Amino acid sequence: MSYLVIQGLEVETPDLKEIAKLSGSTRIEGIGNNAFRLHDYKTEDGVADYCANAKLDFAFVPQPRKLSDFGLVAMDMDSTLITIECIDEIADIRGVKPQVAAITASAMRGEIEYHESLRRRLALLEGLDETALERVYDERLKLSPGAERMLGRLRSLGIKTLLVSSGFTYFTERLKERLSLDYTLSNTLEMKNGKLTGKVLGRIVDAQVKAAKVRELRDGLRLSRDQVIAIGDGANDLAMMAEAGISIAYHAKPVVREKASYCFDYVGLDGVLNLYTQ
């Protein structure tokens, strides 16, 4: 019994009826605030274009599953679990945000190899006082809409959570404690005399390291690939997302949208909860 999930910031009844007609769905079921399940769709033709025009997110689910069938949800941090790119905000305090943000954006589009992009960005931050990190966390870091609701539900079902980031441990470790996340992996900024050196300690967490962490946890928890969900927004999330049975491009770059199982362009992270029965 297949179904099509339609969700958005506001879902109008005429749009639902038109999407049901386009897809050949037999029944419309309300499953939450501005979230609907259209049962037994016959075709996908025309739905993506219609939803793009109506500013709605859609997901064709060919085989019904329970959310509790999953065992691990892996997610990126910057611009995914949180609304900001931490390194860009650190750079803003230094007065070099435009330069750093341009490199970040290029890396997320896959135009610059990640190691090189990080090296260039951190070099611009050399000598900055570490209190800048505290300011970013306290004054600028905000969770993405629906993050706490999603994480609370995953926790209640015993689903493990991994925050795997090419960002920095200063932020991932604080979020781990604040949100009761199970696992984190990220880069450790080198400090000397309370100032950034412009380098990281140890191995850089790049796309392949992120993917390896997902594999390691998946195997350690004795999960199949189909029991893993991965959520990301940039090119360096693609390898990680490929290790999961379900991948979600969250407000993502085109290169990520093309490869993902589903795209969330409008709803928050709690849109994940509407994809599967509870």
Give the CATH level 1 class of the largest domain: Alpha Beta
* Integer tally of domains: 2
User: What's the story with the biggest beta sheet?
Assistant: 7 strands, mixed
User: How is the largest sheet built, in terms of strand order?
Assistant: 8-7-6-5-9-10-11
What shape does the CA trace take?
Answer: elongated
Total beta strands: 11
Report the C-alpha radius of gyration, rounded. Answer: 20 Å
Q: What integer is the average pLDDT?
A: 95
The CATH topology name of the largest domain reads Rossmann fold
User: Termini, distance in Å?
Assistant: 16 Å
DSSP strand content: 15-25%
The tally of helices reads 12
Helix content: 25-40%
Task: Spell out the CATH superfamily of the largest domain.
Answer: HAD superfamily/HAD-like
Helix-strand pattern: EHEEHEEHHHHHHEHEEHEHEHE
* Category from helices, strands and their pairing: alpha/beta
